[in-house]
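User
Here is a favour to ask of a fellow structure person. I am asking you to supply a protein in sequence and C-alpha cell form. Please set it down just below, with no commentary around it:

Assistant
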Amino acid sequence: MNVPVWLWFATIGGLVAIILADLFLVDHKPHAVTIKEATRWVLFYVALAVLFGLGIWFFAGGQYAGEFFAGYITEYSLSVDNLFVFVIIMSSFAVPAIHQHRVLLVGIVIALVMRGAFIAVGAAAINALSWIFYIFAAFLIYTAVNMVRQGVGGGDEEWKEPKVVSLVRRVFPVTEEFHGSKTTVRLDGKRWVTPMLIVMIAIGLTDLLFALDSIPAIFGLTQEPFLVFTANAFALMGLRQLYFLLGGLLKKLIYLSYGLAVILAFIGAKLVLHALHENELPFLNDGQPIPVPEVSIAVSLLVIVGVLAITTVVSLVAVKRNPALAEGHGSPVTVPVAHDAAEAAEINAHDRAIDERQAEEDSHHTGRPAEQH
C-alpha cells in the first residue's frame, strides 16, 4: 500500500481537528456525561471509522479495507478490557464526574502519541527482521494464556501507579485536591501540580502498557503502518465515550477475557504461519520460505467478530441466569454516568459547587484567581 506523505499529514490533521473540537466542547462546558450523549458520540466515532474504511475500500481495494476493519475491531475489543482499569484509576484519584471526559481525552491523546512511536518502531523492526513475527506470536500466545489463567473477574482491580507518575510526584509538589480542570496552580507564590495532571499521565501510560499486546496483534492482521496507526487512532478516540456508555455493562461481560484470549491466540497462530511463509532463519528449511497455508483477512474478520459476538451473548445469558456472577467481576466501583438530564444536572451542580469553593480558596492564597495551564 503506497501511502503518499500528503495523505499521512491530511489524516493526522483531520484527527487533530476532531480532537481539538472535542476538547473545545468539553472545556466550554464541563459536565457529567449522560447515556444518550455517550451513545451519540460512540455512534459518531464508529461511523467515522466505517466511512474511513469505506474510503480505503474505494481508493485502495477490499483487501486493505478488510485489514483496516479487522485491526479496528480487534483494537476496539481489546480496549474494552482496558476500561476496567480506567474505572479503577478514576476511582483511586476521585476524579469529579464533570472532569472525567477531559481526563480521558487528554490521557488518550498522550497514549496515541506514544503508540505512534511504538508503531513506527514495530514497522521498522518488521521490515528489517522477518523473524520478529515469531516474537510477536510468542508474546500474544503468552498473553492469551495469562488471560485464561485470570479467569472470570481477572486481576484488573489491582492497579499500580506507573513509575513515571511517582517520579512526577517526587519532583513536583502535588495538591491534595482538584482545582477545577487545572493541571497546575500557583499558591502562595509557588507552582503546584494538581491531581488532574497526574491522572491524565496515569491514563496515558496505562494505555501504553496495554498496547504491548494490542500493537503486535494488529501487526498480525496488517503490516501497513498507515492502517495500524489509523485503526489505533479511531479505536482510541471512541474509547472514552465507550467508558461512559458501558457503565454497569462492564461487570456483565464476565467471559470477555476468554474471548480476547481466543482472538490473541488465533492472531498468534496466524503470525507463526506468516513468519514461516516469509522465513529467513537459516536453521529452518535452509533459510527458504516454507510453503504453509496463510489465513486470509476474510477468515480473520469472521473469527474476530464471531468470537466477540459469542463471548458477549454467553456472558449476558450467564449473568441473566445467575446475577451473582457479575458481582465478583470487574471493578468494585461504577462509572459515574448520568442516566438522564435531571441526574446529570444534579451531578453537575454538586461538582461545580466544589470547583467554586476550591476557586475561592485559590484566590485566598494568591489574591487573584488561580492561574490555569
About this structure: DSSP finds 13 helices and two strands in the chain. The chain has a mean pLDDT of 78. The first strand starts at residue 184 and ends at 187.
